[in-house]
Predict the 3D structure of the following.
Amino acid sequence: MVIDAHQHFWQIDRGDYSWMDDSVAAIRKDYLPRDMVHHAHACGVTGTVVVQAAPTVDETLFLLQLADRHEIIKAVVGWIDLAGDVVEQLSHISHPALRGVRPMLQDIEETDWILRDEVVEGLGRIANAGLRLDALITSRHLDTIDELARRLPNLPIAIDHCAKPVFDGSDPGRSWREGMTQLAVRPNVFCKLSGLANEYGQGWSAETLRPAFEHVVKAFGPDRLMWGSDWPVLELAGDYRNWFETAGKLADTLSQSGRSSLFHGTAVRFYGIEM
């Protein structure tokens, strides 16, 4: 069984995907569960974690409605205004499939925004509600998230897309490696093996991505590492099956239990998925 720990659905005419400019024209169209079926069958995916793609509560409600109708959706990571009334917003989107929230930190100019007092207080309420944080970050946020994890040790945090390393050839960079190693010291921080194809760009392969993979698996271990497709954003750099098979090649060095954690067990435990 395979869990895709990070993918998206969207419906363009909903009107709140402001990031979809001409640079992503190739994926500026509807992607709904019917479009996921053949990928799931081809790769043995039995469940997915659907992650927000718009900073609105309305989009979160849209994703939760999809979860009501499609069994493959095992968890939803939504969005709320963490600086607002978190309790009231959570009451509005209360749903069994809601397992976490994701602020779009990469798009917020203030690197330390998530350490504002009101935001940390809001995240404390998220943790108390039994929810998790998906951290959509780049290398500039690594120290910030480390500090957040220290302040809120009861908040489970998933680092999306391995914190989007900037590759120089196959080298993801010393500062990235050091920041990820420090983050991995925090037991409440997990990492998603996702998004690397897009970050590397043309020419990505198992061998070009291996240095980044080997670092995160050494730092976090497979019990805190989970595979995700980042589909359909992935289609800007490749295709679903190729990325899945590439991740499988990268995982050849893992034990059978380690592979099981990477492709299934870690996501099940982190998001509290019932199979």
Observations:
- The longest helix spans residues 256-271.
- The chain has ten helices and eight strands.
- The two ends are 10 Å apart (CA to CA).
